[in-house]
Design goal:
By secondary structure, the chain is mainly α. It has one domain (about 30-260). It is built from eleven helices and five strands. The strands form two sheets. A three-stranded mixed sheet has the order 3-5-4, with helices on both faces. It has a two-stranded antiparallel ribbon with strand order 1-2. It is globular and about 45 Å long. The termini are far apart.
């Protein structure tokens, strides 16, 4: 007669297995934060590409040559300073949404509504640099990993599969498409602060003035006009604390910016 293992022993084995998995998946972010990353970057890239293609099917793409050239110029200048072998692609979506996103796999989206709030190339560079930083810091992986651990049945495959299930919408939100799919899932404070810091470095390295980041977020706050805030503001909270932190980070970013300018990095988008 085969004896069954005691229930407590089974639970202990499961706990040890999970703990081993977590320890193996623990990683350090670019600024030294600890985060849980359960998924290989190849799978995250696959998810990001699938989400991007779906967005391109569901949303009108701008045919304005000036807007496309302008956004591409800024994006290309920034991505040239991002380490790694990612081939980045940007699409301008014809929508009043004041929003932008970047997804694993090097996919970037900018909505034409943002161009009315980001008043110049430096302010738009602040947004694009920030969004790219979320990808390079692997924040999407961290959020999907945390959700997978806490919610049974939520799998990464759902973002690639067809259909419009609530689980798929949630995964899209975790990847950074929250406002677009109707589920607002703001990044955590640590992730936001990290994306601000890395984003400043990216834009400054490309020759964009990091001081514009503060003005950009002030514009975002003003754009709400006492009504519902712009989508980008909903998922990327802009408050006095955040602006103060950006202001404190600007002196270091200015050193990078001045060096880039002296080396001929002077984008004219």
């Amino acid at each position: 007669m085969k004896l069954k293992a005691p229930i407590n022993f089974k639970h202990a084995i499961i706990a040890i297995t999970l703990l081993s998995l977590f320890l193996a998946a623990c990683a350090t972010s670019p600024t030294g934060r600890r985060q849980l990353l359960l998924f290989p970057e190849s799978q995250m890239a696959e998810m990001g590409v699938a989400a991007y293609q779906q967005t391109k099917k569901d949303t009108a793409i701008s045919k304005n040559p000036q807007s496309n050239s302008y956004v591409s110029c800024i994006t290309n200048a920034i991505t040239a300073k991002v380490e790694g072998n990612t081939v980045w692609e940007v699409t301008v979506f014809d929508s009043e949404q004041v929003n932008a996103f970047a997804l694993p796999g090097g996919k970037i989206g900018v909505y034409t509504g943002l161009l009315d709030v980001a008043k110049n190339q430096d302010q738009l560079a602040a947004v694009i640099g920030h969004e790219i930083a979320h990808v390079t810091a692997r924040h999407g992986n961290a959020r999907v990993s945390a959700s997978t651990v806490t919610q049974t049945g939520l799998t990464a495959v759902q973002v690639i599969a067809g259909g419009a299930s609530s689980e798929k919408q949630q995964l899209l939100g975790l990847l950074g498409l929250g406002a677009q799919v109707g589920i607002l899932l703001p990044y955590g404070r640590g992730q936001e602060s990290e994306a601000d810091t890395i984003g400043l470095t990216y834009m400054a390295s490309a020759g964009f003035d990091p001081r514009a980041s503060v003005e950009l977020w002030k514009n975002m706050a003003a754009a709400s006009g006492g009504k519902a805030p712009p989508e980008l503001l909903s998922t990327h909270p802009s408050n006095s604390t955040r602006i103060n932190k950006l202001t404190q980070a600007i002196p270091d970013a200015m050193i990078i910016y001045n060096k880039a300018q002296s080396q001929g990095e002077r984008p004219n988008c």
